[in-house]
Amino acid sequence: MNVFEIQDGFGLDHVRKTVRPVPVPGTGEVLIKMSAVSLNYRDLGVIEGFYNPNLQLPLIPVSDGVGEVVGLGEQTSRFKLGDRVSGIFTQSWISGEPTQEGWVSTLGNPLDGLLAEYVVLNEQGLVRVPEHLSDEEAASLACAGVTAWHAIAEEGKVKSGDTVLIQGTGGVSLFALQFAKLHGATVIVTSSSDDKLERAKSLGADFGINYRSTPEWEKAALELTHGRGVDHVVDVGGAATLNQSLRALRVGGQISLIGILSGASVESFDIIAAIIKTARLQAINVGSRDMFESMNRAIEQNKLRPVIDRVFPFEQSVDALRYLAKGTHFGKVCITF
């Protein structure tokens, strides 16, 4: 079978197509013929050696995908041949709180990922995907969708009447927008592009703030909430945005810390402001299988559709990764087999 591997060093120049034997499912495992995968910034971080400079190579990258069950190992009962399934990001995180041990079971680092024509996964690490979604849409759920669901529904407990500020228009951000509207919230979106802000409004966003023309966007958010502040901030920027997120927050509000697009280390965090606001800062690292299945039920019941920016064929997988790295996308970047 054809696969893409990070072969002999870090960087996109070291991601190459090669051939591996089709894997055979063991006890409790299923063989999946992949239909589509979607890309995340984490995939770029793995390929560049950011997350693990001691990563054992070669490694198949990419953590999110969907495919059809075409083989069953012994003692499998959760799925049947022909089922359309997606792997969960942390293969051992079924329910409850995350554990340190769970982080060694994440797809695409340190486990082989899904940028391969066939993969074998334990049946406990799989979920069925909503029937109304295309393969590309279903492939976008595992990281971006579950992360946003975890932030908005599980930890954030966003409810009707809340105001949620969402940074950017990438995969997680647009899922957060859709889920926040699903829960009856007012949504403010920030972006550097007026065109993207208009597209976000077409998805239900109530207000848009261009952070290039309005660099003190937290003041604009306060104005939009009549000085009260927002109930919840989905922060994907990290170092450069965290203090502004704090200043945009209402007293007792919550920040979901998700991304590090502007850096992973904050030089000066405004602790006094955090205390005055009695702010809650909740880091989000994807989610469990239970969260994935809860999200899928909500998506199915509401016929929600993920936002897909562009789809590449499998042969152009490296081009797809380069396109993601440009940061110009609106929604998810996908690859089909």
Name its key features.
337 residues; alpha/beta; Quinone Oxidoreductase, Chain A, domain 1; Rossmann fold; 2 domains; 7-stranded mixed sheet; 6-stranded parallel sheet; 10 helices; globular
Count of helical segments? 10
Beta strands, count: 15
| Structural classification | alpha/beta
Strand content bin: 25-35%
What is the radius of gyration? 20 Å
Question: What name does CATH use for the topology of the largest domain?
Answer: Quinone Oxidoreductase, Chain A, domain 1
Number of domains: 2
At the fourth level of CATH, the homologous superfamily of the largest domain is Medium-chain alcohol dehydrogenases, catalytic domain
What is the average of the pLDDT values? 96
Topology:
Blueprint: E1 2-6, E2 15-19, E3 29-38, H1 41-47, E4 64-72, E5 84-87, E6 118-122, E7 126-128, H2 135-139, H3 141-155, E8 163-167, H4 171-182, E9 186-191, H5 194-202, E10 207-210, H6 217-224, E11 230-235, H7 242-248, E12 249-257, H8 271-276, E13 280-283, H9 289-302, E14 308-313, H10 317-326, E15 332-336
Parallel strand pairs: 8-9, 8-11, 9-10, 11-12, 12-13, 14-15
Antiparallel strand pairs: 1-2, 3-4, 3-6, 3-15, 4-5, 5-7
Helix pairs in contact: 3-4, 6-7
Q: What would you note in describing this structure?
A:
The protein is of the alpha/beta class and 337 residues long. It has two domains: 2-140 and 306-336, Medium-chain alcohol dehydrogenases, catalytic domain (Quinone Oxidoreductase, Chain A, domain 1); 145-283, Rossmann fold (3-Layer(aba) Sandwich), CATH 3.40.50. 28% of the residues lie in helices and 26% in strands. It contains ten helices and 15 strands. The protein has helices at residues 41-47, 135-139, 141-155, 171-182, 194-202, 217-224, 242-248, 271-276, 289-302, 317-326; strands at residues 2-6, 15-19, 29-38, 64-72, 84-87, 118-122, 126-128, 163-167, 186-191, 207-210, 230-235, 249-257, 280-283, 308-313, 332-336. Strands 3, 4, 5, 6, 7, 14 and 15 form a seven-stranded mixed sheet that branches. Strands 10-9-8-11-12-13 form a six-stranded parallel sheet, sandwiched between helices. A two-stranded antiparallel sheet has the order 1-2. The radius of gyration is 20 Å and the shape is globular. It starts with a strand and ends with a strand.
